[in-house]
Amino acid sequence: MKKLLFVDCCIRGDVSRTKKLAEAFLSALPEGYAIERVDLGTAEIYPLDRARYFAREKLLDGGKLGDPLFGYAKQLAEADVVLVASPFWDMGIPARLKTYIENVSIAGITFSCDQAGNYEVQGGAHDLSHDPRHGDPRRERNGTGDALPQSDLQILRHRRA
Ligand SMILES: Cc1cc2nc3c(=O)[nH]c(=O)nc-3n(C[C@H](O)[C@H](O)[C@H](O)COP(=O)(O)O)c2cc1C
């Protein structure tokens, strides 16, 4: 059984068109995938302020990669496939998704860097496919928007067959 991690940054929840697109993708998955979800609309994740940054550095310097602070990073590294669904907000991704990226970007868990400065992704999921869309929320609300969902859907595909 492969593990698919669904990183759900569809802040608007069930009314989100991005979420509907992601759910359609998940329901079309072949057998053999166990789906695990992270709802960034409600998850307890926090950006790195000064105190959190130095606390994290202390843990990393002490090699304490098993600390709960690195739970999301560990969960991501253990996934074979990662699906990230997020709308396009204010010319970029919602702050909650950036905060998640900050939380999971941990050397020794989700990536490594050798002496020559070469970076390598760690864990099961590798290739990144990015399909950014956007839209006019007023036209979506009154039904005059494009037929296709205006959304931002990112898929990390499994590298192995
Ligand atoms: C807070 C917010 C910021 C947005 N910023 C942009 C933007 O900068 N550019 C754009 O084209 N659309 C923007 N939009 C429109 C969304 O991309 C569009 O409504 C999208 O379909 C929302 O996805 P959802 O239905 O999955 O929530 C914004 C919408 C919201 C709610």
Question: Care to describe what's here?
Answer:
With 161 residues, the chain is α/β, with parallel strands linked by helices. It has one domain: Flavodoxin domain (Rossmann fold). It contains five helices and seven strands. The protein has helices at 17-27, 50-61, 71-77, 95-104, 137-141, and strands spanning 2-8, 33-39, 81-86, 111-113, 119-121, 125-131, 152-158. It has a five-stranded mixed sheet, sandwiched between helices. The chain has a two-stranded antiparallel sheet with strand order 4-5. The longest helix is centred in the middle third of the chain and has 12 residues, at 50-61. The chain is globular. The two termini are 14 Å apart. The relative contact order is 0.21.
Descriptors:
Rossmann fold; two-stranded antiparallel ribbon; binds flavin mononucleotide; five-stranded mixed beta sheet; globular; 161 residues; 7 strands; alpha/beta
Please sum up the structure shown.
With 161 residues, the protein is an alpha/beta fold. The chain has helices at residues 17-27, 50-61, 71-77, 95-104, 137-141, and strands spanning 2-8, 33-39, 81-86, 111-113, 119-121, 125-131, 152-158.
